[in-house]
Amino acid sequence: MHSIGGMALTELWERFSFYGLQSILSFYLLYELDQGGLALSPAASAGIVGAYGGAVYIAQLIGAWLGERVLSPKRLVLIGGIVIAYNLEGIEELRLTPEVISGIYTGRITEWSDPAIRELNPDITLPDQRVIPIYRTDGSGTTFVFSSYMSKVDSVWREELGAAKTLDIKVGNAAKGNPGVAGVISSTPGAIGYIGSEYSMALGIPAAAIRNRSGHFIAPTMESISLSANLSDFPDDTRVMIADSPDPDAYPISTMTWLIVYKEQSYGHRSLESARLLQDFLYYIVGEETHEAARKTHYASLPPLALEKARAVIASMTYQGKPLSEP
């Protein structure tokens, strides 16, 4: 399975404990897995915890459904954004387009006073200062989602950098992990980089408003990130990419995080009681109490339709072929 470890939600890791499980909270996706088990890449392993004898995996596996039959059409969902953070003294608001972002990361735009940036920000006095793009050294889901979005909306990016967990960026400076990139941006005047929205919001690092598919410049907020999953045709199996959302008020670079468990719970001498405890836990993490806690740590809530689909997938869990809800 092509598992892509991603934006570590470490600040939420210790916050929640329920039935002996720690939960990473954002937008969750429940997969039905074949009995063959679950294969995880080293890049994903840092975001995974095993419980109930390794039967439950809590992980952020951005893009994991892209590959194999291990993942069948059943899944549960939870959301986060990827922001373009920057360090410009005295500038708290900035507008950028995918084309300008592409120009920065391909070396075509090297100064903050470049006409392409000034045209988008006519009311801001931009400095004659070098642009220093920051990017990830490690394979990451953040990079994968960001580069997938950029490849979708900008042909130059698609041809020169593409979409991958690691990118061959030839300009700027590299750092490891979201915390590393956020730290370099904060300490480097003129820096710009892509990080998880939770880091920008928690650390107070300014992030640019990005032009979305509708032509609107949208700043990353919990509300605008949540709107990216506000789809009228949200599929029952929740297999959907939410970046470049058609919602006119949605922040365009948003993504899912997934929780992966077996749909059929009667494996490895597992008891019915344990299976029902797990189902209760899953209902808990898509409940209002947990979402309220997630919002306090800068994560968006599930839109109503996505929440409805998530609960339906949880309800589809079985034990010896029978729904867990049956006596």
Question: How would the blueprint of this fold be written?
Answer:
Blueprint: H1 10-13, E1 17-18, E2 21-22, E3 30-31, H2 42-45, E4 49-51, E5 56-58, E6 80-86, E7 95-96, H3 98-105, H4 115-120, E8 132-136, H5 141-153, H6 155-160, E9 173-175, H7 177-187, E10 191-196, H8 197-203, E11 209-211, E12 217-218, H9 222-227, E13 254-255, E14 259-260, H10 272-285, H11 288-296, H12 304-315, E15 318-319, E16 322-323
Parallel strand pairs: 3-14, 7-11, 8-9, 8-10
Antiparallel strand pairs: 1-2, 4-5, 5-14, 6-10, 6-13, 11-12, 15-16
Q: Widest sheet: strand order?
A: 9-8-10-6-13
Radius of gyration: 20 Å
> In angstroms, what separates the terminal alpha carbons?
35 Å
How does the overall form come out from the CA principal axes? elongated
What fraction of residues sit in β-strands? 5-15%
Poorly predicted tracts of residues:
1-77
